[in-house]
Each structure stands twice: as C-alpha cells, then as structure tokens.
Amino acid sequence: MYIAMNRFKVLPGAEDEFETLWLNRDSKLTAVPGFVEFHMLKGPEGEGYRLYSSHTIWESEAAFLAWTRSEAFRAAHGSAGGTRPLYQGHPNFEGFEVIQTINKDV
C-alpha cells in the first residue's frame, strides 16, 4: 500500500473557496486502477495560513505513479491554478510506503 499526500497552506479568507473547489471538482480517481481511497483534510491554522492536506491511498507506489502519468491525471489537474491564488507557493508532496496497518475488528 502507498499513501500520497499534498500539503496546502491556504491563505486567510480563501478557505471556503479552496474547499468549494475541492468538493465540486470532477475527480477521476474512482476509475483509476490501484486507487483505494481519498481524503481532503483540514488542519490547524498556522502563521498566515490554514493547513490542508490531500491524502490518497493506493494499492502500490507503481499504481500511484501510473496515475500521475495518465490522461485522467492531466484531466483532473488541467484547471489547477486557474483561479486566484488560494495558497502559499506550491503544494508540498509527501509519499509513503505503508509498512504497518492496524484495523479495528469489524
């Protein structure tokens, strides 16, 4: 399993617009081989920003990398940056190979 995260430092006053953009986007993820789950996380306020993080779970790093090279990826990210600046700089990417998972018994 592989987890891909992007951290966004959203500018003060842009939180609602940022959230609306994510909540209303046409995600292509559910049709992508190897995709498991997506979360958009709202974090704490920092100095001059609100932290958000996208958190995507993949079957493998290879599945994630294939997604980043796909037409679906280009379509999903084609309008990025098309609005006024909502966050400081570029998103900060972090990728993680899962080495342990603990689940609650269902």
How does this model look, in words?
The two termini are 20 Å apart. The mean pLDDT is 90. This protein has a single domain, classed as Alpha-Beta Plaits (2-Layer Sandwich), CATH 3.30.70. The chain has 3 helices and 4 strands; from the N terminus they run E-H-E-E-H-H-E. It has helices at 15-23, 61-68, 71-77, and strands spanning 2-10, 35-46, 49-58, 92-97. A 4-stranded antiparallel β-sheet has the order 2-3-1-4. It is α+β, with helices and mostly antiparallel strands and 106 residues long.
Give the topology.
Blueprint lengths: L1 E9 L4 H9 L11 E12 L2 E10 L2 H8 L2 H7 L14 E6 L9
Antiparallel strand pairs: 1-3, 1-4, 2-3
| Arrangement of strands in the largest sheet | 2-3-1-4
Main sheet?
4 strands, antiparallel
Unreliable spans: none
> How many domains would you count in the coordinates?
1
- Shape annotation: globular
The proportion of strand residues reads 25-35%
Question: Please, what is the average pLDDT?
Answer: 90
Strand-and-helix sequence, N→C? EHEEHHE
> Radius of gyration over alpha carbons?
15 Å
CATH architecture heading: 2-Layer Sandwich
Number of helices: 3
Distance between the termini: 20 Å
